[in-house]
Design a protein that fits this description.
By secondary structure, the protein is an alpha+beta fold. The chain has one helix spanning 2-29; strands at residues 49-53, 63-71, 78-83, 86-87, 100-102, 105-106, 111-112, 117-126, 145-149.
């Protein structure tokens, strides 16, 4: 009987040894690691506003439209949050500043694609009593656009 017990003990110890070897083998295939990732943001580039089609036919009290193009020089899409109201500079022909104004725009529809452009229409108006020096003049109205990222 002693041989039978030795065999049993040997089988049990062999099974335990096999389980330990399998556990070590399994552990040899599993591992973990830790570390970090890095990212860098870009810097927003300011847009520009250029006249597309100037307001023509202005006379005292007249209202017409002018179109401007806003560009997006960035690598991501943007929306225009606003375009400021404009007021004309004095002209070389001595027409006083503020003789022509444009209404601003707030949240106009549309997205400007990365490195793209979009055209917007503004309402332009000449004051009711401009100087005679305002005849046959070209008016420059400074504008500012506020843009926001439209990246999803």
């Amino acid at each position: 009987m002693e041989t039978k017990n030795k065999r049993r003990l040997g089988a049990v110890l062999g099974g335990i040894a096999l389980a330990c070897v399998a556990g070590v083998a399994l552990a040899a295939w599993l591992s973990s690691g830790a570390g970090t990732a890095e990212g860098a943001s870009t810097t927003a580039v300011n847009s520009t506003i250029t006249p597309t089609d100037r307001a023509t036919g202005l006379y005292p009290g007249a209202t017409t439209t002018a179109t401007v193009t806003v560009n997006n020089p960035n690598d991501y899409p943007v929306t225009v949050a606003s375009i400021s109201p404009g007021s004309s500079n004095a002209t070389p022909g001595n027409c006083p500043a503020g003789s022509v104004t444009t209404a601003g725009l707030t949240n106009p529809a549309g997205v400007i694609d990365p490195r793209g452009t979009r055209t917007y229409t503004l309402t332009a108006k000449m004051i009711a009593d401009p100087s005679n020096n305002c005849q046959n003049q070209t008016f420059v109205l400074p504008l500012t656009a506020s843009l926001a990222s439209a990246a999803g």
